[in-house]
Amino acid sequence: MEKTWRWFGKKDKIALSMLRAIGVEGIVSALHDIPNGEIWTEEAILDLKNYIEASGLRWSVVESLPVSEGIKNNAPNRDQLIDNYIVSLENLGKCGLKTICYNFMPVIDWIRTDLDYKLEDGTSTLYFDKIKFAYFDILILNRKEADKDYTSEELAKVYELDKSITEAEKAQLIDTIIVKTQGFINGNIKAGDQNPVAIFNRLLAVYDNIDKNELRENLRYFLNRIMPVCEQYGINMCIHPDDPPFQMLGLPRIVTNEEDIQWILNAVDNPHNGLTFCAGSLSTGIKNNVPELARKFASRTHFVHLRSTETLEGGNFIEASHLEGRGHLIELVTIFEAENTKLPMRVDHGRMMLGDEDKGYNPGYSFHGRMFALAQMDGVIATVRHLNK
Which one-letter DSSP state was computed for residue 225? Predict the structure, then answer.
């Protein structure tokens, strides 16, 4: 597997020289300054590509070329947005970039309730607390009929929490769920936006009458439109699983389990229509057997995210050690190494540790925490290759 690292461009606080020094081989990046829906020019692509290559690395994966909301919800300008996307793909192909990670999650890319959950060893990690999230959904968003998504026991805990939660804690929850996890990745909401709750509710409202089947068909339409240019330039599109992989906020979810993934690959049965195998996202689905999924879809997997989670009581989950948890990363490396030793992989959602805390890194994208995880996976990969000789 190729050892890659998600890097957020020239403004990233982590320098490329640091990454080369710790054994990174390829860079996962994007043109984060270009608004969603606008065309990525050859000039802008080559500028970043040349900058990366000048450091002795290569731009291995584009993550992400964002899919605009208008494509997902079949807005009147959908075809124009897809036309722009196709031009961007053409320009990426001309510049030699052939692996594109993207998602088709409406409104929001990933959800956690705590970005600095303290562990006993002094490090911190990302955490999802279902009751905190339900509180946000029911009593902060005031989403219509949100209470129907929760059990009576969960609702009782929500209203108990309401008796003690402070205004500062409410504001922190809003910032965590709506802003901090989205604003650095071409999100619909960014830091500094006024009244993010109102903006978020307007975005959610667009999907009031869009169910899972319609969202699936919108994805099929998008993939059918872009496959010709993917074939022309040898571009592999790699859809990322929903994070977490279950229904939230009344939004349809279409990349959650084996049946969903199989539907997508069958809907447009083209080798360039493939998967980003995110072990972390898939492992939070309690019914997902992650190694079985890896075996089944290895031939259509073009990019791998190596991270793991542990599911807890009450619907909570936490990022696990890269050597533990439901992701079973050692087994995954064995599966994917057998399929394709050049497959790009990146470690993901490292802990905050050893001074990472005050560096202003994006949530889940610490330096020392990811370096530690990369070292763990590097050892696993070396062991698997040695045993397979």
Answer: H
Contact (Cβ atoms closer than 8 angstroms) between residue 92 and residue 235:
yes
The pair phi, psi for residue 251, each rounded to 5°, is -85, 145
The CATH number of the structural domain formed by 2-110+211-387 is 3.20.20.150
Tokens of 61: 């994966």
Task: Please report, for the chain, the start and end positions of each structural domain, with discontinuous segments joined by +.
Answer: 2-110+211-387, 127-205
Q: Report the pLDDT averaged over residues 229-248.
A: 96
pLDDT tens track for 304-356 = 999 999 999 999 999 999 999 999 999 999 999 998 778 999 998 999 999 99
Q: Please list, in sequence order, all residues whose beta carbon lies within 8 angstroms of the beta carbon of residue 6, skipping any fewer than 6 positions away.
A: 28, 29, 63, 346, 348, 365
Place of tokens 């075996």: 295
Catalytic residue among 95, 207, 230, 240: 240
Give the model confidence (pLDDT) of 72-118 as tens digits. Answer: 999 999 999 999 999 999 999 999 999 999 999 999 889 999 999 99
Give CA–CA dist 357/377, Å, rounded.
Answer: 23
CB 263 within 8 A of CB 298: no
**Beta-strand pair 58-63/26-29:** parallel
- Helix ranges (H only) for the chain are 16-21, 42-53, 69-72, 78-94, 130-135, 152-161, 167-174, 196-205, 212-233, 258-267, 279-283, 290-297, 329-339, 368-387
Put the strands of the sheet holding 124-128 in their side by side order.
114-118, 124-128, 317-319, 309-311
pLDDT of res. 192: 66
Catalytic residue among 278, 302, 328, 356: 278
- Annotation marks residue 305 as catalytic: yes
Give the number of C-alpha atoms closer than 13 A to the C-alpha of residue 36, restricted to the C-beta side. Answer: 19
Active site residue 365: yes
Catalytic residue among 302, 305, 322, 328: 305
Q: Is 132 exposed, middle or buried (0-12, 13-18, 19+ CB in 10 A)?
A: buried
Tell whether pTM > 0.70. Answer: yes
**Lookup: tokens for 71:** 């494509």
- Mark whether 322 is an active-site residue: no
